[in-house]
Design brief:
One of its GO terms (biological process) is proteolysis. Pfam families: Peptidase_M14. GO terms for molecular function: metallocarboxypeptidase activity; zinc ion binding. Helices cover about 30% and strands about 15% of the residues. With about 400 residues, the protein is α/β, with parallel strands linked by helices. The strands form five sheets. An eight-stranded mixed β-sheet has the order 1-2-4-3-9-16-12-15, sandwiched between helices. Helix 3 crosses helix 8. It is globular. The chain starts with a helix and ends in a 12-residue tail after the last helix.
């Protein structure tokens, strides 16, 4: 069915919400932008308690034998359960996809989109959904960093936090008291911007354990892999090792950019298929970890498929471009790609803190954009359409070089 269920939902949302958002643009490029007097409330976005409640309700109402719900770890400080939602078995010949969201606590719309998709997969009898379930295995971690997702008040308003609130304690790993923390740790507890950036805590060697014998590998710069010091990274790693996915999707947020030097439309999404240089090698335990051509080509096919899906018809999601080139083997995307998984990064516009650039109305549109992209990815694997895409489309057709812009007010 070429006219997809997700596109219908997107158009419904556009008619009911987004038309008011994009009327009377406030700047060129047009917004929406947060206004100086505007107070942004974050209660409409899922808290860790809301997530747990919603997952339990979906599980209770799911069609028989469709969905498995597991606790794969606990957050560093508040000890919230970290849930994995599983559709299909790891031991299968079907394509296997791992979708992870909210590794940064203030980047939440991926959680909203993934929960909408989880509900459809668990409960819908739509033909496209049943075809996906028959032909694709998909597992989710819909909120990897629940500690960072907790709302707190600042002088500027409500906020969430990028880090995981964890305190560096060398003794926890059997290390000397004066052992320096990894570079991606912040000790500042006054502003609440403390803890680890979980998305720098990954290593291609998936059995890495931080301890006296590996203390020399604690990274001092972003080009070095992480050390799995956080329970959140360990939870993600456990799911990856169990599933051994063909594709890993990680959902993030970014500030405001325009599509390219020649296209001043405001980006709604940036995507990327490669976060590690092809000549980067990480050696550990007698094994060399390096990006391979097969998984990179599949990454480009997946990213191209989503880009094409978001351009169809009168879609409001056409302002998509490629994320800047990076070389980050210590990220989840980087480490997992060096273990043979294709990858896709979502960098949706807007972050959920007082200095973010979007409000509640735009959040609905951006959530739907991510839903459409994720849904179309699953459908594309179920039908085989993704494998028909020329990987060269990614490099040749998707705009690149999106300049960052500040809000006009």
């Amino acid at each position: 069915m070429r006219r997809m269920f997700s596109l219908f939902l997107a158009l419904v949302m556009v008619m009911s919400v987004s038309m008011t958002v994009f009327a009377n643009p406030q700047s060129k490029p047009n917004g929406p932008w947060i206004q100086p007097e505007q107070e942004v409330k974050l209660e409409s976005l899922m808290s860790p308690e809301d997530l747990e409640k919603n997952l339990m309700q979906i599980k209770d109402r799911a069609r028989p034998d469709r969905m498995e719900l597991d606790v794969v770890g606990y957050s560093a400080t508040y000890e919230y359960p970290i849930y994995a939602v599983k559709f299909g078995e790891a031991d299968t010949d079907n394509p296997k996809i791992f979708i992870q969201t909210q590794i940064h606590g203030d980047e939440q719309l991926g959680t909203e989109a993934s929960m909408d998709l989880i509900q459809q997969l668990a409960m819908s009898n739509n033909k496209d959904i049943t075809n996906i379930l028959d032909n694709v295995t998909v597992w989710f971690i819909p909120m990897l960093n629940p500690d960072g997702a907790v709302i707190f008040e600042t002088e500027q308003g409500q906020s969430k936090q990028r880090q995981n609130l964890q305190v560096w304690d060398p003794a926890e790993y059997g290390l000397a008291e004066d052992t320096q923390a990894p570079w991606y740790y912040r000790p500042d507890s006054v502003s609440r911007e403390m803890g680890f950036d979980v998305n720098r805590d990954f290593h291609p060697y998936l059995d890495f354990e931080l301890g006296p014998d590996t203390a020399a590998y604690i990274p001092r710069r972003s080009s070095e892999p992480g050390v799995y010091a956080t329970p959140e990274a360990l939870a993600s790693r456990a799911v990856f090792k169990e599933l051994q996915p063909d594709l890993f999707i990680d959902h993030h947020h970014r500030y405001s950019n325009i599509v390219s030097e020649d296209d001043d439309r405001l980006n709604t999404l940036q995507i990327i298929a490669q976060v590690v240089d092809e000549d980067t090698v990480v050696s550990f335990g007698g094994t060399d970890y390096q990006l391979d051509e097969e998984s990179l080509n599949l990454s480009k096919q997946v990213n191209s498929h989503v880009y094409q899906a978001l351009q169809r018809g009168n879609s409001p999601f056409g302002a998509v471009s490629r994320y800047p080139e990076v070389n980050l083997p210590g990220t989840a995307l980087g480490s997992y790609s060096m273990n043979g998984a294709a990858i896709m990064l979502y960098e949706t516009r807007g972050q959920q803190h007082p200095y973010g650039h979007t409000g509640q109305k735009a959040n609905g549109q951006y959530t739907q954009q991510s839903y459409v992209g994720l849904y179309e990815t699953l459908r594309g694997f179920a039908t085989g359409e993704i494998y028909e895409i020329d990987p060269a489309f990614y490099d040749e057709e998707i705009p690149y070089g999106s300049p960052r812009i500040g809000r006009p007010n």
